[in-house]
Design a protein that fits this description.
Chain A is α/β, with parallel strands linked by helices. Chain A is 42% helix and 29% strand. In chain A, strands 1, 2, 3, 4, 5 and 6 form a six-stranded mixed β-sheet that branches. The chains are: A alpha/beta, B alpha/beta.
């Protein structure tokens, strides 16, 4: 698993690319890093999942945790560029009804900047 | 083995007729040396017995009794011995008391009027759990903390799975769960409902370890409780979601496929909480995924509605319920088993026997992944309307 901050916009939206596998062994680190970024007061957080190959259900739990924490602070979290297999998982689990899913970074940024 | 039969069971009920009835209905188990019953008429008497006799393994208690009721008794039992397991006898559909009982540590419940066959199954399952629990405690000192936690969790997981399935001329059912080495939170369950209807659950808890195992146990019991007397699968998931959400301080969640079948009409009704949809397999081997009902995984958000969908099963048609451990089983090259291979596996099924069909899925997965160890639990349940059903 690799997390890279790829962009911070003028109005404070951060784009983080997640690569590789987020499984049970990397989920705790995922929670620490993502939670840290959100706690730092990032208003909008966009996760680019284009190169994410696998995400375990515990890691999906982390995404929800951060989504809710963001909502409580008046911020938001969105994901974009979701590979088909993962999109299917989000759809079946119903998480696409909780986490905003966008086709591209540009679209997600626009939604987070509103 | 830490515990040996006969297991000593304390039955607590203010109804004097229960004692001879229990001894009569359980006489075979008593004669075979499996159970040994002792009785008390209320919570106070029960506590006295528990204090005097330190070899009582299990308590079966009514709720409403004079002097001390069953719910109060439940709170007191762990102070005498935390390793005693309790089963509560409650009124049909009394979710409030059932839930309070579970929160106070009851392992399971049966409803009134007592179905003694159901009680026997429940007692056996509780004893099985107790045995595994005590073994885990006994071996605790030999293991490092994490290993032990996973061992205890996996034993808890195993202990809630049904070991036998209903025998009915109208349908066949078989299910199995193969645990991953250390991770996983799958379970399945079968519950007998009114008018010969049957309920079935396949579920996957998002986390691992003891907290996840406890979450799994309460999910299973809440589903069982909600299923009895409910208006259908959508209703069951709505109720269980709210109950799980209330006590859920973590972001743990569970994906559930819960379905009910009515042998009188052939109607199969299901609802999904974030779970893969059922696979319908026709007698000619062709198959199709039933529509998703769009519900979110349970335990995350309150007051959600869960839609349900229904199909009429024709004689010989089969429903396969599975967890993502099946569809996402992976080779060492990270290729996934996928839905198409699952459809191939069920198409090759030998015919009348749900057990063989279910095993065929496990074989196909195992052949596919080779010696790559499974990264998630694998659960599959096969339900078939018999040709004559």
């Amino acid at each position: 698993m690799k997390l890279t901050v790829v962009n911070v916009t003028e109005n404070g939206v951060m784009v983080v690319a997640i690569e590789g596998r987020v499984d049970s062994s990397t989920a705790p680190k995922f929670r620490r890093v993502l939670g840290g970024v959100a706690d730092a007061g990032t208003k909008g957080l966009v996760l680019d999942l284009e190169n994410l190959r696998f995400i375990s259900s515990a890691a999906l739990g982390v995404l929800l945790e951060v989504t809710k924490a963001q909502a409580r602070r008046g911020g938001m979290l969105a994901v974009c560029s979701v590979p088909d297999a993962l999109r299917k998982i989000l759809e079946i689990s119903g998480f696409d009804q909780i986490i905003p899913v966008h086709d591209s970074q540009a679209e997600a940024l626009a939604a987070c900047s509103r | 083995m830490v515990v040996k039969p006969p297991y000593k069971i304390l039955v607590v009920d203010d109804e004097p007729d229960l004692e001879p009835l229990m001894l009569q209905r359980m006489r075979r188990n008593i004669r075979r040396g499996q159970y040994n019953f002792v009785f008390a008429r209320n919570g106070v008497q029960a506590l006295d017995r528990l204090h005097q006799e330190d070899d009582i393994d299990m308590v079966v208690s009514d709720i409403n009794m004079p002097e001390m009721d069953g719910l109060t008794l439940l709170q007191q039992i762990p102070k005498v011995d935390p390793n005693i397991r309790s089963i509560i006898v409650s009124a049909y559909g009394d979710m409030e008391n059932i839930r309070t009982a579970m929160n106070r540590g009851a392992f399971d419940f049966v409803t009134k009027p007592i179905d003694f066959r159901d009680l026997r199954v429940t007692i056996d399952r509780t004893l099985q759990h107790l045995m595994e629990w005590r073994e885990a405690l006994a071996s605790r000192d030999q293991l490092v903390a994490l290993q032990n936690e996973l061992t205890v969790a996996s034993k808890m997981q195993q202990s809630i799975l049904p070991t036998h399935f209903p025998d009915h001329p109208g349908y066949q059912l078989f299910a199995n769960m193969e645990p991953a080495r250390s991770v996983g939170g799958d379970f399945f369950d079968v519950v007998t409902l009114e008018n010969e209807r049957i309920g079935m659950t396949v579920a996957d808890v998002s986390d691992k370890g003891v907290p996840a195992a406890l979450f799994m146990m309460s999910t299973r019991t809440l589903i069982k409780g909600a299923a009895i007397g409910s208006a259908g699968p959508g209703d069951v998931l709505r109720e269980v979601n709210n109950l799980l959400f209330e006590d859920n301080e973590t972001e743990m969640f569970v994906t559930v496929l819960y379905a009910e079948y009515n042998p009188a009409t052939g109607e199969f009704v299901y609802a999904s909480g974030g779970h893969d949809p059922p696979l319908l397999v026709r007698p000619d081997g062709s198959s199709t995924s039933l529509p998703l009902t769009g519900g979110i995984a349970l335990g995350l958000l309150p007051d959600l509605d869960y839609r349900q969908n229904s199909v009429i099963l024709e004689p010989g048609e089969t429903i396969v319920l599975y967890t993502d451990g099946v569809s996402e089983a992976m080779t060492s090259d990270e290729e996934q088993f996928g839905l198409e291979r699952l459809r191939d596996a069920v198409a090759a099924d030998p015919g009348e026997d749900a057990e063989a069909a279910n095993e065929a899925v496990f074989e196909a997965v195992s052949d596919f992944v080779g010696d790559n160890p499974p990264s998630d639990d694998i659960t599959c349940l096969t339900f078939r309307r018999t040709v004559s059903g």
